[in-house]
């Protein structure tokens, strides 16, 4: 009876969480193709105004990598109405803050303001789209900014380049093979006309989604959106990347050197399907099961019990076209790659041939319930999730329905997806090692 009551209580809790977390929104499309999503939340006098453009590193010319990330910086230089250097001053002097970020698949800009500055936020983002100032002084300035960012985050950061090394080995055709920060030589060689052409091609209303979330009134907000964004002309249709990789049929063995590390990192990587697939979500659960915390089987066995690694982690790097499933470990002492790989493979084989326990399965479900709640717990995250679900997943209703997908994943699916993708003949084994001391020769 006690078990039954516990199960009933858990079911009621899950149900109440789903109801409490339901996100209400309105969406529509302007005549120029800009998709608009509005979410009302009057719990605080705050509003988030954000624009996500469907342009990322994968949309770049292979001889001009880094453009998408560069524009994340460049489009803060100013507009015809906002003088150079005034963008951030205008935001902070009106009680707001803002930021932007770039991935392989999209570029995202947002402002957070007191709700009485909603019109200011909408105007600023519309002006960035309508008439940005792209001139040589801005390009030269941001070129130095990006170079410094690369020096700090990649070149001089321990393990700062390992994801890039994985990508260039897993992808031979698709533009996921380079990093969003790109090549500094490519940026140096680019002309002002090339930057302007990139802006004209990708920064158009029909290649974007506008999300406004917070303390808003729908009718007033729609009027402001039409006033400032409705006047912007539709751009030419933007071609989408459609490049297929050949299947990996034998292991890829690679080595990369990093002068900033003393302990190697042994990486096992698998190419996986688009984040839009059900299998990608199963892989999310697999990564959480294998190394999600110190009680997970892989971490507990290899790090705690056998003390073969200082650290060990696994995660599913989900993207629009393909994903990567990554397992990385820092060996303890003289532990070899072969010894560490043998232990990792043993846990994968176990996952492929046995069902995880019911207890571990319930723990996974609880973990993903918690992620769901936390993922939409603040306006900034909520606005970005709405934009991502519309632009990249093609299903904005995932904001409410995605948790049901995770709930429906079975233990059998976890076993079968591990068997489908985590195979020794279709993976990369990358040794990311300290650079050799050339002076010692």
Automatic annotation (TrEMBL):
<keyword id="KW-0482">Metalloprotease</keyword>
<keyword id="KW-0645">Protease</keyword>
<dbReference type="InterPro" id="IPR011765">
    <property type="entry name" value="Pept_M16_N"/>
</dbReference>
<dbReference type="Pfam" id="PF00675">
    <property type="entry name" value="Peptidase_M16"/>
</dbReference>
<dbReference type="InterPro" id="IPR007863">
    <property type="entry name" value="Peptidase_M16_C"/>
</dbReference>
<protein>
    <submittedName>
        <fullName>Predicted Zn-dependent peptidase</fullName>
    </submittedName>
</protein>
<dbReference type="Pfam" id="PF05193">
    <property type="entry name" value="Peptidase_M16_C"/>
</dbReference>
<feature type="domain" description="Peptidase M16 C-terminal">
    <location>
        <begin position="190"/>
        <end position="366"/>
    </location>
</feature>
<dbReference type="GO" id="GO:0006508">
    <property type="term" value="P:proteolysis"/>
</dbReference>
<feature type="signal peptide">
    <location>
        <begin position="1"/>
        <end position="20"/>
    </location>
</feature>
<keyword id="KW-0378">Hydrolase</keyword>
<dbReference type="InterPro" id="IPR011249">
    <property type="entry name" value="Metalloenz_LuxS/M16"/>
</dbReference>
<keyword id="KW-0732">Signal</keyword>
<keyword id="KW-0862">Zinc</keyword>
<feature type="domain" description="Peptidase M16 N-terminal">
    <location>
        <begin position="36"/>
        <end position="150"/>
    </location>
</feature>
<comment type="similarity">
    <text>Belongs to the peptidase M16 family.</text>
</comment>
<dbReference type="GO" id="GO:0046872">
    <property type="term" value="F:metal ion binding"/>
</dbReference>
<dbReference type="InterPro" id="IPR050626">
    <property type="entry name" value="Peptidase_M16"/>
</dbReference>
<dbReference type="GO" id="GO:0008237">
    <property type="term" value="F:metallopeptidase activity"/>
</dbReference>
């Amino acid at each position: 009876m006690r078990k039954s009551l516990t199960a009933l209580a858990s079911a009621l809790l899950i149900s109440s969480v789903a109801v409490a977390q339901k996100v209400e929104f309105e969406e529509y499309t302007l005549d120029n193709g800009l998709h608009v999503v509005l979410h009302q939340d009057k719990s605080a006098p705050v509003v988030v105004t954000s624009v996500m453009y469907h342009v990322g590193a994968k949309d770049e010319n292979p001889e001009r990598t880094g453009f998408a990330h560069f524009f994340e910086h460049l489009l803060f230089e100013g507009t015809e109405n906002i003088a150079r250097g005034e963008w951030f001053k205008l935001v902070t002097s009106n009680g707001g803050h803002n930021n932007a970020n770039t991935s392989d698949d999209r570029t995202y800009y947002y402002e957070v303001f007191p709700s009485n500055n909603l019109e200011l936020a909408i105007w600023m983002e519309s002006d960035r789209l309508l008439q940005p100032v792209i001139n040589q002084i801005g390009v030269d300035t941001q070129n130095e900014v990006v170079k410094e960012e690369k020096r700090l985050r990649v070149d001089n950061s321990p393990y700062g380049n390992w994801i890039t090394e994985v990508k260039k080995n897993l992808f031979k055709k698709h533009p996921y093979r380079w990093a969003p920060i790109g090549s500094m030589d490519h940026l140096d060689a680019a002309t002002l006309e090339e930057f302007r052409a990139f802006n004209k091609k990708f920064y158009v209303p029909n290649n974007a989604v506008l999300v406004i979330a917070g303390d808003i009134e729908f009718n007033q907000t729609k009027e402001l959106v039409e006033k400032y964004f409705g006047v912007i002309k539709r751009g030419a249709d933007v071609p989408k990347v459609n490049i297929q990789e050949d299947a990996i049929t034998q292991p890829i063995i690679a080595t990369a050197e990093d002068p900033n590390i003393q302990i190697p990192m042994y990486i096992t990587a698998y190419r996986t399907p688009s984040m839009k697939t059900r299998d990608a979500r199963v892989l999310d659960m697999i990564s959480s099961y294998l190394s999600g915390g110190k009680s997970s089987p892989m971490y507990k066995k290899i790090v705690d019990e056998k003390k073969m690694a200082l650290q060990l982690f696994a995660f599913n790097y989900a993207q629009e076209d393909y994903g990567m499933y990554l397992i990385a470990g820092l060996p303890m002492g003289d532990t070899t790659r072969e010894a560490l790989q043998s232990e990792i493979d043993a846990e994968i084989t176990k996952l492929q041939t046995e069902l995880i326990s019911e207890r571990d399965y319930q723990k996974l479900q609880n973990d993903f319930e918690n992620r769901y709640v936390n993922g939409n717990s603040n306006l900034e995250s909520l606005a970005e999730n709405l934009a991502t679900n519309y632009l990249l997943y093609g299903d904005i209703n995932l904001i409410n329905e995605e948790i049901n997908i995770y709930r429906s994943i079975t233990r059998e699916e976890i076993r079968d997806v591990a068997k489908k993708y985590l195979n020794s003949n279709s993976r990369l084994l990358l040794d990311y090692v300290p650079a050799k001391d050339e002076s010692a020769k």
